[in-house]
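We store sequence with structure; for instance:
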Amino acid sequence: MPSNIKINEVIALLKLHDLLISASIVNAEQEFTGIAIDSRKVNKGDIFVCLTGYATDGHLYADSAVNNGAALLIAERSVNADISEFVVKNSRLAAAYLSRLFYPVDDDKMKIVGVTGTNGKSTTAYLGYQLAMKLGKNAGFIGTIGYFIKDMHYPTSLTTPDIIDISKILSQMQQSYVEIVFIEVSSHALAMHRLAGLNFSATLFLNLSQDHLDFHHTMDEYFACKSQLFYQLKPDGFSLINIDDDYGKKIWDNLSDNKYSISYIDGDIIYSINKLNIDISEFTLTIHDADYKVKSSLSSEFNVQNLSFALACIMQIYSEIKVEEIINKTMELKAVPGRLEKVINPENKNIIIDYAHTPEAIEKACHSFAKLKNGRLITILGAGGNRDKSKRPLMLQAGLKYSDLVIVTTDNPRNEEPVAIIKDIIEGTAIQTAIWLKEDRKSAIMDALYISQPNDIILIAGKGHETYQEIKGIRYPFDDREVIREYYRKYLYKKNYQLYFDEIMIDFVCNNSITCSSNNQVNNIITDTRKLRSDSLFIPLKGSNFDGHAYLSTALEDTSNLALCTQDHEFEHPRVIKVTDPLACYGKIARSYRQLFSVKLIGITGSTGKTSVKEYLYNLLSEHGSTIKTHSNENNYIGVPKTLLKLNGDTKYGIIELGTNHFGEITWLTQVSFPEIAIITNIGASHLEFLENEAGVFREKITIFSEGANIKIFPGDDPKFIEQTGEDFGYLPERKYRIHGIYQTKSGYSFKINDHKFLIAAKAEFQVTNAAIAIIAAMSLGLTPELIRQGISKDLHLPLRMEIIENEKHYIIADCYNANPQSMQAALNHWMMVQPEKPHVAILGSMLELGENSIFLHSEIGEFLKDNNHLMISVGEDAINYKFKYHYDSVESLKMSNIIDKIPNQSVILLKGSHSIHLEKLLKKYNPAGVL
């Protein structure tokens, strides 16, 4: 840099570029030693250029600059200073050209490559820089991640440094004998003339998609700004243009010569992918009519494109170097920090950090990784505050297009409220969508690590290389990589990680929008105030005998708690979220939670056998991974959500019973639980009060297959399933899974499924079918017959479901948890076969919920038993239709009679009936006042 610049040199330069309007000269012999655009950085003898900015106006700081020693002011309007003052047409252009005087660059000695586009600038420029360095060239790089002079790195705060800094850096590079520099050229830099006066040896256009419309206003304006770069090309320079991009075609058409097209279809340079996975890419680069095989550790389709640009540029500039020598360096190239950067971690998960923050960049990244995944693609994204709002919902839609789950969080909120930004992002998104809202970015990243499995890909988009988060004008330290490291320091084994709901997520799920004014943390979902803890959401459910709304005040006594409340209820409170139907919201909340996990979930429905199949499956699967199951009879609108909310990061399998007594319930429960394997055990006459008949039961149960289950298991011997495709089982030879070869052993039953033999410890033969269904499901999950045999042989512990209770007087079969004609028939058949030499007694309760068919179906059971000589006792209003000799209205009236005393010692007693009859009260095991 010259020691000083004379005033006449300044005037001559401004006139040369037709910028000077007027000049007020105090000292015609004045010389200047520097230039500044920030009044705080002015030194004595400097030129201060007043820039009209987007946040402030440099003319307002002219006095401050003069006070700091400025000797000349250059402005777009007179500020009436006491020093020399030049008024110019464009002070930014003036600053750019003048900075070249102070920091000269000989572009004949140093080749400058400009790379522009919406996405891929950093990577392409950085790859070009690395290639040049690997080839022994002194190279430089200027971009978002800072600048490199040969192998030394220097941080910067802008993609392209400001007008003065860019000249300083280039001059510094030239002084360090850099012969080629790659510059990441942003549209802001072009619009603000930071690169004015530079002559480029090569200009590269990658792509153009929506971004920065808060700055450029329209895509046409954005494109026009990007196009400026290609008119700063040296006469002997060249342009590389992606003609697969519509805007690239426009630039191609506007340039007359010195241009080369790049395409994956047909161009001067063509790239075609041969192999692509998460760790490597292999492609063919066709250039100068020759094919070259290229291999790189950089994955994704767009990295192939970026590398193709870098290779083509280097090959053109250094045409004297053999192409093979250049290509041999590609495996040594590294990704730009924060650009598709794979983060090493103790679980060897595929964790990728990327700067993608536009709809196109997110879509491209997600599309590429969706092709490479073996599990799920989990994408984390947010949107910057005080920037283009129109792209926010487009970013989410881009992520959802190829991701299995999108976690919406914060980026740099700047001066906007994070919740307001998230609200913009989710605008128009359906609540059924697999998204998770988490305002705190650290928590969002940790949630993804917690819920993911080893074969998943986690894409953390938006911040890339940045090591800060800007909130309310303050930059706080924040590094996505450090969050990952912190998670593994604290929660490697997941045991103590707390996954919580944001209030905004609850609100969105319940109302399909964010209506709440705050955002609290919810650790527990509670329907019973007796189980309330801090940070709970209370869901007030209405029952036949109670209304949870009566307990809202109690639930909210803890100031950390929230509650739902119906919109028409008079209860008002700032921590209440108003909803249409709290029960429906309970299911929606559970569904959103279930979607976080890639658990192998099995849904089971049917008229009988659901619980036995569940328990057999639990015995099988819990040997091979953490498994949750429906507790007891929690198979309804309340129980299924309750079970799903027990999922955690370790859960591998889930087994959910789906019960019904009204049309539409199975569909609703299936939509909540999303079973990967859907099972129908059988179709029988159950819950006919509302399902009408067996055809109605079939119509209701078959809807478990309606929500996209990958595997469908059903009883193929039942002609109602004749048109169904999937994994059919049964006893006929034509079944895909044929059950045969059944015989009783000392400890249970032996049987075959196709050619595989199994043993179970069941007391009743009908359990063979239930065990077989569980085995088929386990096989569908990939378990081998050898592994299955270990689990299927375990005893089932099912209270009041074919439970055997032996005492000194009797052998009791307690099967009084529920009853329908099908299960009643099966229980009776088994009872008759047990120890036939002994006296047999059947105490049969009513079969409930049979509707208008109740009399007929009870009579059928009575007809079946009419010719036996056993003691038969009926209990309950409907049970009178069995037409037994002994009938009692209730268990209490039976206990008060003397009929129990007439039961012979050593009898085989069957207790069978619907649970509401409470036959278990006869058992001393369950009731101190029992008589058996």
Notes: The chain has a mean pLDDT of 92. The first strand starts at residue 5 and ends at 6.
